[in-house]
Amino acid sequence: MSMNNSPSVFLDPNANRFQVNVINESHGHDNSATSQEDTDPPHYEETSFADEAHNRLRISFRPGTRQLYDNFLQNGDTAKPDANIHPYDTHSNTYYLQTFGHNTMDPIPKIDYYRNTGSISGVKISRPSLLEIHEQLAKNIAVNPGSIDRVANGEGTPGDDVTANKEEENKGGFVKFGWVKGVLVRCMLNIWGVMLFIRLSWIIGQAGIGGAYYLISRSLGPEFGGSIGLIFAFANAVAVAMYVVGFAETVVELLKSSNAMMVDESNDIRIIGSITIVILLGISVAGMEWEAKAQVILLIILLVAIINFFIGTVIPTSNEKRARGFFNYQASIFAENFGPGFRDGEGFFSVFAIFFPAATGILAGANISGDLEDPQSAIPKGTMLAILITTIAYLGVAICAAACVVRDATGNVNDTVVSGTNCNGSSACALGYDFSSCKSQPCAYGLMNDFQVMSMVSGFGPLITAGIFSATLSSALASLVSAPKVFQALCKDNIYKALHFFAKGYGKNNEPIRGYILTFVIAMAFILIAELNTIAPIISNFFLASYALINFSCFHASYAKSPGWRPAFRYYNMWVSLFGAALCCGVMFVINWWAALITYAIELFLYIYVTYKKPEVNWGSSAQALYYVNALESALALTTVEDHVKNFRPQCIVLTGAPMTRPALLDITHSFTKSNGLCICCEVYTGPRKLCVQEMNSGMAKKQAWLTKNKRKAFYAAVAADSFRDGVKSLLQASGLGRMKPNTLVLGFKKDWRNASAMQVENYVGVIHDAFDFELGLIIVRTSQGFDISQVLQVQEELEKLEQERLALETTIKDNDFEEGRYGIRGFFNKASKLSIAKHETRKDSNINTIQSIHMDEFNQRLLEANSQFKKKHGKGTIDVWWLFDDGGLTILIPYILTTQKKWKDCKLRIFTGGKVNRIEDEKLGMASLLSKFRIKFADINIICDINMKPNKESWKFFEEMIEPYRLHESCKDLTTAEKLKREAPWKITDAELEAFKEKSYRQVRLNELLQEHSRGANLIVLSLPVARKGVVSDHLYMAWLEILSKNLPPILLVRGNHKNVLTFYS
């Protein structure tokens, strides 16, 4: 990497990092900042200085050949070529012969400040602390340039203890249900569904009575909750098809027994199912209240049918029923059916998959939680009672069926046992019937073959048929209501924006008509399958996935330890929830592994989609609680970690006020804190405490939301205080958490300080002093157009309001014209009389609109420029770093971080620093060595040796004119008058003060000349911030220094670290 000022330096791929090219600073050679085109650098402000620097001879340094630097890399030895000193440097005033940096407590950058204590390559020395530079010197200590020179050179270490660090909606007319009608009835109807009447007997035959126990106990768990999204809504829609197909199967069986088939068995199921779902859709659309009344009637029929079954088991059986396998209660039959007897490739989990939809009814109440009067009480009470009642009913029916009906029967009353036949343990044979032919050919009756066993066993068969109709239709109706409600809730949350169309509701109950239609379409598609045993496993797969998520949600909420998660169920345990979730996932894969993979692939896709889209919803989820817990644990763990210089990062507190009013100040800070450090945007409210606190609290969420919306990785904080300085002081002390505390204050330059009151200037400079007192780094940012765009935003907002009012007025006029036109001739003449007025006002409005448009364009342009100056990507150019004082490395670290960001990566670092006249070569090589050890790439190093020259007369005259209104001029007045003036205006600059700091004033003016000469074409300037001694340098003099130092320049950062190392070259 070359250190030449020429443009080609950035294009030379062979340039060595430590090559130092000639910098000709003599007369006739323009040594200003390099531009990519041969054009003059931009002019940043109206005021400019007459530049005499171009007419002045300056030090010329030519290092000679590259061999010198090769030697430097190999053994560190260097030669010392001659340096030409212009006669001006031998001016009679010996002050200007002193090397820059050695006539002040501020030390120049030096490698020895960054060494470890036990370093063998050199001795570590301590730089003066920020306290020593900032505070007044003790009055009883005589300070002379020699002693200061020794300190700056590391020959003395003031304050051995300096290195010790101290860390410190209810709608009217809405129908609501209680726990009985809203939860208990619905859950029982859903659980006592199609499986109870037309599949439970088959399941008993396959799995045995012991298998049934496990199926039921593992299916009817205590899970209940609300919607879990698309999969659950889809599963409910498919469940509608399953219940309708079960109903259609029963109807087809009746048609078959009457020889009244329409086409064939499958097509008849499709036809009857299609007609049924259309009727159910009409009932659902009629409204929740009507549907709830229908559910109660259906439940009564269902209860009568179940009781009818139990009565039938004790009524003496007939020969016809015996031939079909029903023998009343027999211990031998119960023993025979107790064990499993899986056939036709069926197994425990395949049978489980068909039975499991019976358990899905447990969420029927929770699915309509929005329609319940008291969901918190109704859901657990109704669901748990429904589970208890239905479990008893299922177990009772299963035991009774298993004790009364054999697995296989021919239905032929003549298949009796011949005397002398060996029964081989067959219970039917022992009871006088020979069903052995069922082993070689299919039989139509028995638990394994007849889905209408309950009708046969019951006391009155048509009641069971009515029960089947009641169970299937009620379950189908409940699912047809649940699926659209779940889907509507999902769409209202607007998580999937493409589905928001289905969120609209109709009527006083906000019925999801569009959701009903969608559910109807999905159910119709599955009804056309016309096979219950095919549909049931599909539902089992999706419901198991849903229940796994519900269980995991309970576990996650408990694990996150959110105070808002307070489960009222006495026997709840988070680990049982986790076990339930794992069990559901495992069973899914056992039932059908490829269907489980597809289900989880769909879930993963939906999860990734929502994560990517980041919908603007706040549900107080357990994930949020866990984020908080993790963040808290990380923050606490971080407090136990010792600070290390290698892990230093700028953690900035930025005085933006409302973030949207100074976006450019936030942008430049965000450039070196994004993904790297903490950034807190701060605002201070001053005035009456009550009004301030009210305004502050009302704007908190809005301003943080603005940061999030504009993708600024920053926090917003605000305080109410008596003064700006008091507020900032509070923020500096209290902001942050543990190790995540701000270490750098960023604020904009106060451009209006000359028109501000003395108190405002005192507050601004006081903030700078406070930052140094609290040992924070400081960055003052100045741009030519400033940062505050609040007035522009205000005007823009007012113009938008005017435009809205104009549009509203036009709409009103049109409406009035329409009304007047309805009243015949009188209306016509009224309209005609207003026409000329309207035309006149239209011309007037047109002129106003034209003016407004011009102003709007102007304000928008200013807004765009102020907003985008640090947003846009910077092309090839330079960041000029004037590292004049060693502040621990913050001045060089900030520009380095900037070059790692996309917007600044094409900009090269040019380093400027002061040096001795007779040690230019050593200074340059020393800086190159220091930067290389820090692994900071640079394009150029410039050693400036004439910083302490007097500025030209025009520049100095401008400075004097600038401070003139703030001078006291006490020396030309008598003592009494002078004392009176000091009492009246203690903030003014005294003659004694101006004389005492004349050389420092010279330096600030001279630095601006050098900056104009070298860095006018830079993309950004980073400059060491001068420190004013507290209580010695007046506020207005310090502001004058900052003003003259940074005037007429590109965007500039005035940086001062806290004099503690932020860089190291040790691993």
UniProtKB/TrEMBL annotation:
NCBIfam families (UniProt xref): 2a30
Start and end residues of each Amino acid permease/ SLC12A domain: 210-653
Segments for region (Disordered): 27-46
Subcellular location: Apical cell membrane
Pfam families given in the database record: AA_permease, AA_permease_N, SLC12
Oligomer and partners: Homodimer; adopts a domain-swap conformation at the scissor helices connecting the transmembrane domain and C-terminal domain. Interacts with KLHL3. Interacts with IL18R1; this interaction is increased by IL18 treatment.
Keywords carried by this UniProt record: ATP-binding, Cell membrane, Chloride, Coiled coil, Disulfide bond, Glycoprotein, Ion transport, Membrane, Nucleotide-binding, Phosphoprotein, Potassium, Potassium transport, Sodium, Sodium transport, Symport, Transmembrane, Transmembrane helix, Transport, Ubl conjugation
GO cellular component, one term: apical plasma membrane
Protein task: Electroneutral sodium and chloride ion cotransporter, which acts as a key mediator of sodium and chloride reabsorption in kidney distal convoluted tubules. Also acts as a receptor for the pro-inflammatory cytokine IL18, thereby contributing to IL18-induced cytokine production, including IFNG, IL6, IL18 and CCL2. May act either independently of IL18R1, or in a complex with IL18R1.
Protein topology in the membrane: Multi-pass membrane protein
Name the record gives this protein: Solute carrier family 12 member 3
Source organism per UniProt: Alligator sinensis
Membrane spanning stretches: 196-216, 228-248, 269-288, 294-315, 348-370, 382-406, 513-532, 538-559, 571-595
BP-aspect Gene Ontology terms: cell volume homeostasis; chloride ion homeostasis; potassium ion homeostasis; potassium ion import across plasma membrane; sodium ion homeostasis
Annotated SLC12A transporter C-terminal domain residues: 662-1067
Sequence similarity: Belongs to the SLC12A transporter family.
Reaction(s) catalysed (UniProt annotation): K(+)(out) + 2 chloride(out) + Na(+)(out) = K(+)(in) + 2 chloride(in) + Na(+)(in); chloride(out) + Na(+)(out) = chloride(in) + Na(+)(in)
Keyword Membrane: yes
MF (Gene Ontology): ATP binding; sodium:potassium:chloride symporter activity
Name of the encoding gene: SLC12A1
Domain Amino acid permease N-terminal: 89-156
Entry keyword annotation includes Cell cycle: no
Coiled coil location: 792-819
